[in-house]
Write a structure and sequence with these properties.
Blueprint (H helix, E strand, L loop, with lengths): L1 E7 L8 E7 L8 E4 L5 H10 L9 E12 L2 H13 L24 H6 L26 H14 L6 H18 L36 H34 L13 H5 L8 H13 L2 H14 L5 H12 L2 H4 L2 E2 L7 E2 L5 H12 L7 H13 L1 H30 L1
Parallel strand pairs: 5-6
Antiparallel strand pairs: 1-2, 1-4, 3-4
Helix pairs in contact: 6-9, 9-12, 10-12, 10-13
Pfam families: DUF4806
Protein name: DUF4806 domain-containing protein
InterPro entries: DUF4806
Length: 410
Amino acid sequence: MWCLISLYDNEDDVDEKSPDLIPNGWIINKLNCWYPLDFKISTIKKYAKSKEIPDYNKWKKCRIDIVEENIDNYEYGLKLMYKLNKNTNLHSEVEERGRGQRLKVKAKRSLEQYYSSHSDEDDILFKDMPTPYPAFPKKQKNQSQLFNETNNCFDNISPPRNEFDTLCLTNKSSVQSSSSTPFSTPIPDEPSKTLQKCKLAKKVVHSCTFDFKDKSLLEAIGHQLCKLSADINRVKSNIKYVKQDVSSFIEDQPVPNRQTNTNSEEHYLSCFPLKSESELLAIESTLQNEDLSYTNKLVSTLVFASEGKNISKVTYSILKIMFSDELLKYYSWKGQKNKKPFSEFKICKVIIGAVRQKFPDQKDCRNDIINSIMSWLAQAPTRIANKEKQKKRSHHDEDNNIADDNIISF
């Protein structure tokens, strides 16, 4: 049997926890378990699948939260772990919408079942009775009957008072004569569904509704409304970032001494990228000793300096601004592969806070940010090797160009 848990990476910080699947033999109680924290991830998965007996001398006692117990299938447990990583709710009973939240409709009994049942209920409520069938259409009349009805109708009509009434009567008679023919019904004029030409000038840059030639007018308007809604949300998010930036730069300054913060971004990013461990420790001491204003301003500066449309690209952009690859090659997230642990630094909270401000609508994005940091740290040696290859190629091309110039000069 296995157990699905939430493992606390740092006991001091309650938010730093990640889902994991461990055997029941590793659990000490409902709050603690034995866990090979210093081992490789592949080794930990191997031990968990084979139900390895804990080594109390090498393993650590870690804090956990039990999510689900007594899972008899390891593959099914992995699926639950991946689902827990993306969503806090594992089962559909807690969902507000979707599967598991459909109300069961009680089947209504027909009138025949009421009469055929042998129950003691004698009163039948009319509101529970089935709806009656719609009325059948009347039988179509013959031409002679229609002709007699039209004559009787014209006999009862008073003579027209003016020319306008005569026109109305002629129109009525024409309509009735056309309807008297069998199997003929008047067809109303339908509005044209084809789109006309746009009246704006071609120089005006806009998303034209009339470009949807193969679609109806309502469908084209629907596409334009969706695009307009996306543009409005983008403008709202940009306004929010501008407000945060302005408030963070002017909140601590008195009114007569306020100055323009044109170089504020360069001021806070002047010490980056960090190239040595001593520079990293200096930033750590600054974050620990300074008040929250420095941290908040650094976070807001990273929000505006970073680029990307998703969480991973924004995280990569921030790490590229703050650290050099020569420094990151000595670190991993938890200290695997005989490297130094990167998760213990205070600057990790700055990175996570900046990415969260960049995507305020995505609340549960901490694990995605950590996974992006882990992949960026692991690829640092590869990026260094690629840079060296590019330098060698550029030097080789320069030497070839110099040799060609010498040949031409001779």
